[in-house]
Amino acid sequence: MPLTAADIAKQLSGEVLGDGSLLLSGFAPADRAQPGDLTFAENETYFARAESSAASAILVAGNFTSASKVLIRVPNARVAFAKVLPLFFPEPTFAPGVHPTAVVAKSAKIDPTAHIGPHCIIGEQVRIGARVVLQGGDYLGAGAELGDDTNIFPNVTLYPGSQIGRRVRIHSGTVIGSDGFGYVFDEGLHRKVPQIGNVIVGDDVEIGANVAVDRGALGPTTIGKGTKIDNLVQVAHNVTIGEHSLLVSQVGIAGSTRLGNYVILGGQSGVAGHLRLGNRVTVAAQSGVMHNIQDGEKVFGSPALPDRQTKRQLLALQKLPELLRRVRELEKKLGLAAGPDSPEKP
After folding, report:
1. Cα(21)–Cα(12) distance, rounded to whole angstroms?
2. Are 214 and 180 in contact (CB under 8 A)?
3. What is the C-alpha R_g of the chain?
């Protein structure tokens, strides 16, 4: 459905520079935009590309002007970009009801506005809130709970007792509540420690594809509200993740570790077990955290150290070959024989 530039500006708390009645029917990057499209620019380079494109209007922040394009000026172009996309590309809608191929336990309580897609399995005492969507092939174990407006993508497994908040999105292939990795060595074998806890996911959490969140051994594994988890992440048993944190792809968190609020774990970083990471901690990609980290610290490397310290060490390593060459030259000038501790010739 086309929208006028003025309609879009109103929804973004912005202002129109040019013809507010201009109809816009799509959104596209500058290099693919067609007449009738809106594009965006957050700096001068992008603005130059957008102005020379076929787009009819540009979403901007700052004091840009144009003689050829309608501009929609907003406080923050990237935030406006995130807000405007759903106007042109709304989420698919799902009609209320239970698909005839779904298997639903008699004791399950399903809000009549929920959508239960094909081949879903819903166990005993499951509770499903208003406007929840199970897209298809999903498994909900006994006693699982889903809050209002939660969207479960195809082929997601929720083990018994999992508690999912409101407006949560869980993508395909993810498993919530599988057994934690708990064993004790006993008479030459690894004896399994029963995992009898559960997983609690707060409101407005998004969990990517093929994520594994283990149930607690006794108490819960907890993911705080507003946290976003990328694909292929492992969260071990009894981990607590605070609110509004970001876990990027291939992160691994070992058991019983606690993360504060607004923590960022870069891709492929790992956190050892039984640690404490404070609020607003940032861990750079491919780092290995082996000790507690205080509020606000940024760490990098393996083992992870304050990022500035690690960067200085990396710069020093780059200078090491030249330093070894200079040491050899000094030994020659001084007539020193190369001893066992002297730098070897590379």
Report:
1. 16
2. yes
3. 27
Q: What single DSSP character describes residue 154?
A: S
- Strand 298-300 and strand 305-306: the pairing is antiparallel
- pLDDT higher than threshold 80 for residue 321: yes
Residue 346 has pLDDT above 70, yes or no: no
C-beta atoms surrounding 88 within 10 Å: 17
Q: How far apart are the first and last CA of the chain?
A: 67
pLDDT at position 335: 87
The active-site residue out of 237, 244, 274, 291 is 237
Residue 340 pLDDT greater than 90, yes or no: no
- Within 8 A by CB and 6+ apart from 290, the residues are 272, 275, 303, 304
Rounded average pLDDT over 191-204: 97
Phi, psi torsion values for 52, nearest 5 degrees: -90, 0
Report the C-alpha gap between 199 and 196 in whole angstroms: 10
**Residue 237 is a catalytic residue:** yes
Tell me the per-residue pLDDT of 294-315, one tens digit each, with 9 for 90 and over. 999 999 999 999 999 999 998 9
Domains in the chain: ranges and CATH: 3-88 (3.40.1390.10), 97-306 (2.160.10.10)
Q: Taking the CB of residue 205, how many other CB atoms lie within 10 A of it?
A: 25
DSSP labels for 61-102?
-SS---SSSEEEE-S-HHHHHHHHHHHHSPPPP--SEE-TT-
Distance (Å, whole) CA 98 – CA 287:
46
pLDDT, position 141 = 98
Provide mean pLDDT across the span 234-258: 98
Cis preceding linkage at 346, omega within 30: no
Q: Enumerate the β-bridge partners of residue 283.
A: 265, 299
CA distance linking residue 211 with residue 53, whole number of Å: 40
- Burial per residue of 291-325, b for 16 or more beta-carbon CB atoms within 10 angstroms, e otherwise: eebeeebbbbbeebbebeebeeeeeeeeeeeeeee
Which residue shows structure tokens 């310290």?
A: 309
pLDDT mean across residues, the chain: 95
